[in-house]
Amino acid sequence: MELRHLRYFVAVAEELSFTRAAERLHIGQPPLSQQIQALEAEVGAQLLERSKRWVRLTEAGKLFLDDARRVLSLSEQAVQTARRAQRGEAGVLRIGFTFSTPFSPLFAAVINRYRQQYPGVHLQLQEMATVPQIERIAARDMDLGFVRPPETAVPDTITLSLLRHDPLILVLPAGHRLAAQKEVAIKQLQGQPFVMYPKTAGTGIYPQIFRMCRAAGFVPEVAMEAGEASTIIGLVAAGCGISVLPSLFDSIHMEGIVYRPLSDPAACTSLMLAQRSGPSSPLIDGFVALARSAAGVEVGGPLAAA
User: Which CA distances in Å does 118 have to 82, 88, 121, 283?
Assistant: First the structure.
């Protein structure tokens, strides 16, 4: 059974005239009559009663009309859904983000703007560290990721686009001797106990701290590990050590904590958008273009810091 047969039948059923239905469909009346007869033969039931003066629906025809209309409506809906997906206006987009990303105004601006422009797209957002995001994007289990620069090699199948730079800040107990300074150098942290993300968490900040400390002539002493930034900050407030985090976390106000800038030029991290290299879908292209625009990056041009 073809959709055009259903359209022919619906036209005749609504017009109750083969002549008017043929004019509506822009076909000849004899071919229309033949198609309706073929449809009835395929269905195995008489759908229309005819005379030279009138056309009526049989009981079978009345029931068939309801279903035919639903089938045609669903077919049109399927066409529109496919076209919207082709334009990047429908579907599911799987996006990862690091622990600090939601604290960035850029993230909120991009997500809100995307939801407004593409209400037909369902966003699946998942918090995870940088390395697991890159692994899942490469494995096609995730489409995009807001990540920090990884210390490990990035596969050739992954492209990273710079969105913004974020300084690193020192998290100190309020009574710490370094809290009296306006800014602190990395070398002044020698001998201090650190509270950090676990090494196995896959965050870019863990190896970066070790690299900066080694460049300053020492290896950091890890006193405690915690998987959440708020927990790290709480442990610092409890006197368990100090920490270094992206500056976005200074919006977490906690009694007994102070944040101080780090004076070292290397004390900086970046927020980047990770995606698979090569051709992508309109769904991904639309989000990437919006994110780059929100970050002040010219689409198709050189990357710039926000």
Answer: 15, 8, 6, 10
